[in-house]
Amino acid sequence: RKEVEQDPGPFNVPEGATVAFNCTYSNSASQSFFWYRQDCRKEPKLLMSVYSSGNEDGRFTAQLNRASQYISLLIRDSKLSDSATYLCVVKGGHNQAGTALIFGKGTTLSVSS
Amino acid sequence: DADVTQTPRNRITKTGKRIMLECSQTKGHDRMYWYRQDPGLGLRLIYYSFDVKDINKGEISDGYSVSRQAQAKFSLSLESAIPNQTALYFCATSSDGEGYGYTFGSGTRLTVV
Fold first, then answer.
1. Residue B111 has what pLDDT?
2. A contacts of B109 (beta carbons < 8 Å)
3. Could you tell me the end-to-end alpha-carbon distance of chain A, in angstroms, rounded to an integer?
4. pLDDT digits 0-9 by tens, A66-104
5. Which of B58, B88, B109 sits opposite A100 (nearest CB)?
């Protein structure tokens, strides 16, 4: 089982749609969780951290389920500018190496007018 | 100026040549990382360093070496470049607090011919 798994998509949605991405991780000792956004040929940028209590930032909501080792990202009222690849990222474990970030391969979103 | 600067931005080199990719940061972070990104494979960790005297191998360190010349500088070397090292390379930094994400440089696109 890969450490961080995501559906690669692509997800093609119209403007205004609500879209949800899911991610699973294999290391139950993981301690921190993030969603990053990456535009084509650009560097990844932190979108938001993910907590068990849920985390909302405007149109974006992230959720963590530790028992199921499952992370989600919900985007409401999609904009053209949301088109990008969304990376699920996990950090932490029992050893020092676990403090580096482990990246999923990303889910591609394309929002059309 | 960018918080994390990578040089060069693009490089084409020949098989067997030695090449160095450089990374410098103004974030004041102790932790620095080198990742490579390949289509369909996502970001993979090459090396990481938690301070000047600390160097650790990541998931795919074979064929690479690193040097942490100062807190702000972390360079990646390919001693004898080969075509399957053609990739997009990212340097990243982080603080040592849990729950903090990374700041990435803009990337170096390396082509080995």
1. 97
2. 41
3. 37
4. 999 999 999 999 999 999 999 999 986 545 555 678 899
5. B58
